[in-house]
Amino acid sequence: MRWSSSDAARARQVGWQLIKREPVAYGIAMTYWVAFHALPTAFAFALKAVLDRIQPDAGNTVWLALAVLGGMELGRWAMLLFAVVQWHGQWVFWHALPQHNVLRSLVSDPGPVAHRLPGSSGEAVSRFRDDSMHISLMMDVWLDIVGATVAAAFAVAAMFTVDVRLTLVVSAPMILALWVCRWLGHRLRVWRRREREATAAVTGFIGDAFGAIGTLKLAGAQGATTRRFAQLGDARAEAARVDQVATQVLQTLSAAVGDLGTGFVVLLLLPALTRGSATVGDVGLFTASIATLAGLPRWVARTGATTRQATVSVDRLTELFPEPTPERITERADLALRPGPGALAPAERDGTTASAERLKQLEVSGLTVHHAGVEDLDLVIERGTLTVITGPVGSGKSTVLRALLGLVGRDRGEISWNGEPIDDPALVMVPPRAAYVAQTPRLFSEPLSDAILLGAAPDHLDDAVRLVCLDDEVAWMPEGMATVVGARGVRLSGGQVQRTATARALVRRPELLVIDDLSSALDVETEAHLWRGLVDHAEEGFGAAALLVVSHRPAVLDRADQIIDLTPGKGTPSRAG
Length: 577
Hints:
The protein is α/β, with parallel strands linked by helices. Helices cover 60% and strands 9% of the residues. It has helices at 5-21, 23-53, 61-108, 121-160, 164-211, 213-218, 222-275, 280-318, 397-404, 425-428, 448-453, 461-467, 471-476, 494-506, 524-540, 554-557; strands at 361-369, 374-382, 386-390, 412-417, 420-421, 434-437, 512-516, 546-550, 562-565, 574-575. The strands form 2 sheets. A 6-stranded mixed sheet has the order 6-7-8-3-9-10, with helices on both faces. A 4-stranded antiparallel sheet has the order 2-1-4-5, with helices on one face. The longest helix is centred in the middle third of the chain and has 54 residues, at 222-275. Residues 1-5 and 335-352 have low confidence and may be disordered.
């Protein structure tokens, strides 16, 4: 697989868009770094002037000259301090904008997100953190390559003033190094992506293993887990070794160029010095200029490497958007995240739902999801009702819920809220209209109260905890609502995780509460109390105005106003009792 100019164009396009977002700041940074790289050439002329004027009996003049040159170099590095402060603001911006746009797209863009998300948490972290960093590294190295190119041009011009022929000779190693950089750089992109994927696999496996310690112990899979971790580690080490060897070869070429150039100066310029056709200042100017010139292949190599890294990162980030175009990565937007779609306007956040959001009737017509076997399903949910979807395993019960909420795509079907068609349920079927409790909920490793609220107002927290029959168990927890639940709720039982997720939905006061098999991890008594509370409180006005649930449990079916049986041949709503 070869890396083409069109691949580089994608990364350069993203870089150019980032520059246009903050052109003044980038221009200031560019001025700083060009000056930092180019000043040594001016110092080379100063060195030549000093050396040419030093006489054998100059005495303290030599030390004065060295002090002046040292002061000039210290001034250059002092300027770097100001450059770094200004650069740091740019560095943060280069990171923040892609990360913000990815997060905003996953939360707010139309359509389901499941097919866009990476397959593991490690891969997701790698894309969000590492890929944005590699785009930032490309932006950073652009400052250096421009500065190094300007400095190299000044250095060549300086050497031309002394000896054109020798300048051409000492430039030959640099030209060879640039060709090697280009030749080896073509292969670096493939190796870099392989290393990134291997690293993400290790990170994801570690996260999965720590989240399933109990399962691994009960299955006696400790040995297999260790072996799998070793296999992934070996694969990552091999990929990293190839990648790092190539990168180091590219980055050490500049040292070889400098050594060869200095050798040529010694061989060709010192005889001229002996004959008197060259001065000590000429030797100093050439030596200083070669040091500057030798840095160019190093920056060319680093630019090639970071551009290839950034190209891989751009490809990986664009996969997280519904339309994989690089422009989405650098969209200009307010970096403060705003409430998601469906959130109440400020004037409406008084504990009541805006009248336009209140559910009167939800109608589903001809819902079809071919891959799940759901065909032409019709459904009407009225305010104040409990609708239960039942059927055998694999009949598409969960898919019906997820398609209704826009979490998976539908092949056909119309959805309307109070008679108004919903084109994209992913943007509409969210709080305060609807809230969803998945069959296997995900909890953050936060205190229990925070895991439920997730930023919502705590006004109804106690009511929600009591409604899901969790209050007595919270009283027994060592720190009550401040108890940290662990990754994915690992410190809670399966039933507690499900009820915590249900409380999380209830504190958002949804009109429609959608639940996927909530009773699967509950004992019979807790289940009865829970469903009694959900239905009775809905009638009293605190809970959801309507319930749509997947269940096969008699305690739920007995309370249903409407049952949708997805057993083949029975996909018609029926009225309970």
